[in-house]
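Batch job 17 of 40 flagged for manual review because the log was empty.
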Amino acid sequence: MRRLLLAALPLLVAGCTIPGQGLVGPAPQRPSQATAQDIAAQADRVPLVTIGATAGPDEYQSALAQAVRQAQALKPDVMFDVLSAVPRKGTPTKQTLAAKALTPDATEVAQAIMGDGVPVERITLGAVIVPGIPGDEVRVYVR
């Protein structure tokens, strides 16, 4: 039995890595210039509509419908981005969980936009971390 363990020891040690090595590359990749520019452009976007997480459909549907009509009047092929926006607080995991919890509300807003006559191909759903906002909200952006 002892010989078997001694024979297996090199195989067990060969499968080990020094802590902090082997799982991550030698140096993290820097974002490309295009990625950095895209992030900067997103930071300057102004939402068409902002809906608090506690707002019900009856509180925002008429204002949303009016904003959608105005956006379509200015640009008939307008695209709508419906984003779950959460504050930058807590760990990244907590931020991700907060954004996921807001997804049903964002989906409801996207469905309301579809109900206003916008084809589903012109609506996207997503999430964003926004520093400085007081709480969770659904934001609608146009492009």
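Reviewer: the log was empty due to a logging misconfiguration, but the result itself is present. The mean pLDDT is 80. Unflagging and moving on to job 18.
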